[in-house]
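Why Fungal-specific transcription factor domain-containing protein? Reviewers of the renewal asked for a concrete example.
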Amino acid sequence: MINRLETNIERMESRLHEMGLRLSESSTSTSQEFLCSNAPVLEHSDKNTASDPDFANFCAGPEPNRVSTTSSADAIPGIVFSYQQVENWPPCLASFSIPRSLVDAPLSRGFSALSQKGIEWISQKAGNVSLGNLSSYLSANDLDENPGNSPLGGPFPCRVFCSLPTKEETVSLVQEFIEDFNMLFPIFQRSELLSLFNQKSLDMRVQTPSQWACINAVLATACMIRPRDEGSGPDHHQKSWLFIQNALEVVNELCLGPPNLLGLQALLLLVTFLIGTSAEHPCGFLLSAAIRMCHELGLGKTEDGSPLCMQEIQHRRTVFWIAYCLDRELSLRFCEPPAQSDEDFSASLPMEAPTDSKYTIPTSDLSGSFNAFRSCCQLAMIKGQLYKDLYSPAAEDRPLSQIIASVGVLDEKLQEWKRSIPPEYQPDNGGPDRPRSTMSPVLLLLHYSYFHCMIAVHRRVAAGGLSIGTDLLEKNDFTSSPASLSNPRVLLSTSLCSKAARASINLTNYLSQENIPFFRVFGLLPSGCINSAFMEHNT
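Here is what the prediction returned.
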């Protein structure tokens, strides 16, 4: 038994020696070198090389370029770090995750032992035990947001498709982003964004993946919304796509690394940029990753007992609801299941509009203000119900009477939502035409979304060739389901579709040049609806 144990120990020492850890050296030596890439790089023995000629030829090739923190002549290719003690190995060498099954709270997710929450959990379970070594791993920002706190942490290869502009040009682009885009999609706080760009260096080598993705996504968006007669000329739209490619280079690290708020914001900004191109698969992939990150960060839960200040809590709630609205918009637009259901979160609807945004709109009688952001979130919830009842795979086999009943219920919800808006801001209120330059982009987005929902609700009936009540009665027996026609507006579905499509197309008169890249996709559905009606009725 003892001989067998000694043999196993010798084999383990030999294996550790091949990995670069020399146990025979004195512990008082100045440094002890071992390899640390994303995973330990093994030294190739002569035995393996001799038995495999192809592998020998591969090893004989030129060494790849590498970054080294030591100057050792016989160093094995890889990234070399120096540590004096074995217990000082960096956290990225192993996974220190405490699984959910060991956590006392059943609704809590797992967490890293090398986090403040992990240290507290170990202290509670272990009692009076010194945790100095573990505590030393914690930085001021906590390792939960450190890319190195992951088995996949480390320097990923990354290409730069377009170098960052000069300081003056960057300041100009960031200012345009804040004034023209972030006011409409308040993904960032103004102070947060200015702090990100006020660093001494924006070079990729000194940025985290989240910072690098945000920097490039912001610059890409600002270039896209910049009018063509300003800046560097027509090529700034091409530059915007190069900046997007810079940001997409680190998407793997954003998705595979530990979640953090800045990475979530970068993913959402990439989605809003690509949504104007109707790129279904990239938008769906990025948004699914963003939704999962929302839940990992706890943004979908109520903030009871949170140590954060009220401003930070409100901002995190805003980011969550922006992700929710994008999820429902993509689901309805592309007829794909949403990334989350309403049962997956407990966050309440926002009572206040986000700061640094245009979602607080004063009413004409000065009696109060209109919270357009809350209305956007309410409309997004109706979109989710619309997809589930009319366009999901489960809705395809529903009887016609149930479809018509759902159309009536959804139409009533839309009309109720419309009545909750001040009359002067209601879509299609029949009032006098506004001057083209006076409609807020927030109202423009709200009206586009409403007309899109109206078309999606009534097109389910109109597309079946059911244009008047006579057709409905001929194709279905409503005696068994009198509730199917509880809303008489379902008898006018074709007319309501055409009316909403014309109103949606008319909104293009209010589009400013910087809003065109993000609103132009809203014109596709109503145009198709008008064309279908024209081809069907030849009128």
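DSSP finds 20 helices and six strands in the chain. This is the kind of structural detail the renewal will allow us to pursue systematically.
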